[in-house]
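User: Homer protein homolog 2. Structure?
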Amino acid sequence: MGEQPIFTTRAHVFQIDPNTKKNWMPASKQAVTVSYFYDVTRNSYRIISVDGAKVIINSTITPNMTFTKTSQKFGQWADSRANTVFGLGFSSEQQLTKFAEKFQEVKEAAKIAKDKTQEKIETSSNHSQECGRETPSSTQASSVNGTDDEKASHAGPADTHLKSENDKLKIALTQSAANVKKWEIELQTLRESNARLTTALQESAASVEQWRRQFSICRDENDRLRTKIDELEEQCSEINREKEKNTQLKRRIEELEAELREKETELKDLRKQSEIIPQLMSECEYVSEKLEAAERDNQNLEDKVRSLKTDIEESKYRQRHLKVELKSFLEVLDGKIDDLHDFRRGLSKLGTDN
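Assistant: Predicted structure:
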């Protein structure tokens, strides 16, 4: 009743395999609630997670613990008391960051609580030691001073001081006795909690063993189903191949039927053409006669073309000869023109001199 939740989130819980110390074993089938609890009575912090009626995490935070992020959405910490390593898988990196920050805060608070408890223990121990040292002094003072009547008659400042110190020691002893009772109650509570945790761990171990058997059965069933699926896939592939073959055969039959229809159409056309074969034969003879006449005309035309080519070659030759003669004539003419220009310049010079 003294524990209160201070932070709650949801995550997939894992535990390290105790045999291999490497592989992770799922402690929950789905995401479960993971909470930080603060125990006011014991001044301690715990991480608790329950899946249905089974406690899967019950880890008391100590200053020596460290929460490590192993990926963007997974973190882990080691619990030496439980002799295991817990792992949490979150749905987002933000949830992992918040959980890690809270772990660090709780770790610091646990360290402060431990320091305060240590100080209380040391203070109580010092009071007990002082009580042990000063009690003999009181006894010695009582024996030295005599009886109560003598103390009353011979009371002085020293006796008054010893009496006040004795009263303080009695108060300290009373407080120590109360603290001892309180610690006994806490020890009994811890024992009861340890017994409950032991029972829960035994139940968890039984559940884990049962889960392992179920997992083995499911794995065998899964292997059998995979084999059956492979066989069915092979049968499906054979059926698909047969379907493809049937589709190809249907397509081939359709093509053959189309070719058959084309052949029938061609056959009808040929029959119609066979009816006009005599007319075609007469037309063919007429065309053959025209073709022979055309060939004769073509032969005559070829002879004419050859003669024209010969005339063209002779004409080209004559043109080339005329070009050569014209070129030589032009050269002679250019010489004569030059001579006339020289003669004219001479006449012009002679007229100027006269």
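Confidence is low (pLDDT under 50) at residues 134-155. The helical segments are 93-145, 148-153, 157-275, 277-353.
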